[in-house]
Amino acid sequence: MDAVYDWLKGDLSTAGRIWGAVAPALLLGSYFLIGAVVYAIRVAVKGRFHDREVESRGSSAFLGMGARNLFAWLMQPLWRGLARFEVPPNAITTLSVLLAAGGGVAVAVGRFSLGGWLYLFAGACDFLDGRLARTTGKATRAGAALDSVLDRYAESAMLVGLAWYYRDSWVLLVVLATLVGSMLVPYIRARGEGLGVDVKVGLMQRPERLVLLGATVTFSPILAAILHPTDPKPMHVLAVVGLCILAATSQLTAVQRLIHVLGKLDPSYNRSARNEGGMLAKNLVSAVAATAVDFVIVLMLVKVVALPAWVATAFGCIVGGIVNFTMNRVWTFQSDGPPVTQAWKYTFVSASSALLNSGGVALLALLPALDFRLAWAIVRVAVFVAWNYPLHRDYVFTEDDPDGAVEPLSTI
Question: Which of 1, 7, 198, 244 is deepest in the core (most CB within 10 A)?
Answer without folding.
Answer: 7
